[in-house]
Design a protein that fits this description.
single chain, 454 residues, mainly alpha, Serine Threonine Protein Phosphatase 5, Tetratricopeptide repeat, Collagenase (Catalytic Domain), 2 domains, five-stranded mixed sheet, 19 helices, 5 strands, 52% helix, 5% strand
């Protein structure tokens, strides 16, 4: 789920008529310059300090497999980062932006050093196939107490490189693929360097965080930076017990997040291992389609117990909607609407709502309701841009461009499509993939089924 595979809806929504070959797909795709994001503008956390403290403890003292950590572990002193085997041109700029954010927002003393020097964190890009062979369900990963892919291969069964044996952080290695889109590389940088620095867990109920396997957020949020800032506050130190951290955390948060003292707390239900397993199975392509469907329906049934406004119920609807889209577009639409209503009624899920809006805009385009599709896209563009999700932004603009073409507004359509392709160069990378996404969008348009505007 690292890339939003929207609507592979061509077959589902246009099954009643085989679309004509897309003229745009036939043409040599003219690639404008790749677009990138400018100054970061993350939204601040809106949660109470009480909730943030609870999240901090769950993120810091429980591994993703449920095993408890006996003590807080972190780097002490200045932190250095190096990149070895650098290949992707975009990596240097994205790493520089990330480190600057960590310094200014999380107040962490971290800097990059030349690849010839030893460093606390080594980033080593490798082939995607190597990542998949080592960790089939991961797009990238981080491993303690190693500094290279060769050392990881040699010591991968050494208990000293296991997270549950970690007592301090001195060396970490981040492995990410170099043969993927610039956005995928950047997303891995954010996710894995943040884990190398701090939280060891991912929690599905965290709606404003990258520390969440739903992958709606792809770069570190304001909430995430607050968690990391607390992690490296001078009042904490490596080796503290859970009780010691819990005693100091309220004071830390009062000092670094004064607005969190007046924020209202909302009762939360902790997740269950059964739901986590169900949603993981539903979301991972390596499982069979029938197994994923069963797991998604089970996740919906289990999530109902969390309450009608819980993000895990919305995510269960969303995942099930994507799975049934090919066979039952009507059920998929109903599920997306249910998810959208939950996200719409919460103050902390604008990004999630935008993902649902993308699906709904595609349905509207397929039905020939161009103005509604354009409206759904336009209302979501600011939050998608702010969240720096180039792939989603590109898809939305592709839908808008096709809707404008449907209305006969050719000049505006071509302008918007050029903007979409500029973002797609960052979000999707390969020209062939960009052409495929353009063809997917055109395939659901009535224009391609009727041979012209309607």
């Amino acid at each position: 789920m690292r890339l939003l595979t929207l609507l592979i809806a061509a077959a589902a929504l246009a099954a009643c008529a085989a679309p004509e070959t897309s003229r745009r797909a036939e043409m040599e795709l003219a690639l404008p310059p790749m677009k990138t994001f400018a100054t970061p503008a993350p939204l601040p956390s809106r949660l109470s300090n009480e909730q943030i403290a609870s999240d901090f403890m769950e993120l810091s003292f429980v591994l993703e497999n449920g095993v408890s950590m006996p003590a807080l572990t972190r780097f002490e002193g200045p932190i250095t980062v190096r990149v070895t085997n650098a290949q992707a041109p975009s990596l240097a700029a994205d790493l520089s932006r990330l480190l600057e954010r960590l310094r200014t927002e999380a107040r962490i003393d971290i800097r990059q050093v030349p690849d010839t020097q030893d460093a606390n964190i080594t980033v080593e890009p490798v082939r995607r196939a190597q990542i998949q062979a080592a960790a089939p369900s991961a797009a990238c990963f981080v491993r303690p107490n190693v500094s290279s892919w060769a050392e990881y291969r040699q010591r991968r069964n050494d208990p000293e490189t296991f997270w549950n044996r970690l007592t301090e952080r001195s060396r970490m290695a981040v492995f990410l693929p170099h043969d993927v889109s610039p956005q995928e590389i950047r997303d891995c940088l954010h996710e894995e360097i943040s884990q190398a620095l701090g939280p060891v867990n991912d929690v599905y109920r965290l709606s404003q965080s990258i520390f969440n396997d739903d992958n709606f957020h792809t770069v570190l949020t304001g909430y995430d930076m607050l968690i990391l800032r607390a992690y490296y506050d001078p009042a904490l130190r490596n080796g503290m017990t859970e009780a010691e951290v819990a005693a100091r955390l309220p004071g830390i948060l009062r000092r670094i997040n004064p607005t969190g003292g007046s924020a209202a707390s909302v009762a939360r239900i902790r997740s269950s291992e059964t739901w986590d397993r169900a949603i993981d199975t539903a979301a991972l392509p390596r499982f069979s389609r029938s197994a994923r469907l069963r797991a998604a329906r089970q996740a919906v049934d289990l999530a109902v117990a969390y309450g009608s406004n819980d993000t895990r119920l919305a995510f269960s609807y969303y995942v099930l909607g994507r799975l049934v889209l090919q066979d039952d577009p009507g059920e998929a639409l109903a599920l997306f609407l249910k998810a959208g209503r939950i996200y719409q009624n919460r103050p902390d899920t604008a990004v999630q709502e935008a993902h649902v809006a993308m699906q709904l805009a595609a349905f509207q385009l397929s039905a020939g309701r161009a103005d509604i599709a354009i409206g759904l896209v336009d209302q979501s563009l600011p939050v998608v841009t702010r969240s720096e999700h180039a792939a989603l932004l590109s898809l939305m603009l592709m839908v808008k461009a096709e809707a404008l073409m449907l209305k006969g507004e050719t000049e505006d359509s071509e302008r918007v499509q050029q903007e979409a392709v500029g973002w797609a160069r960052y979000g999707f990378g390969a020209p062939e993939t960009i052409k495929d996404r353009l063809a997917d969008i055109e395939a659901i348009s009535p224009r391609t089924r009727t041979g012209g505007a309607i």
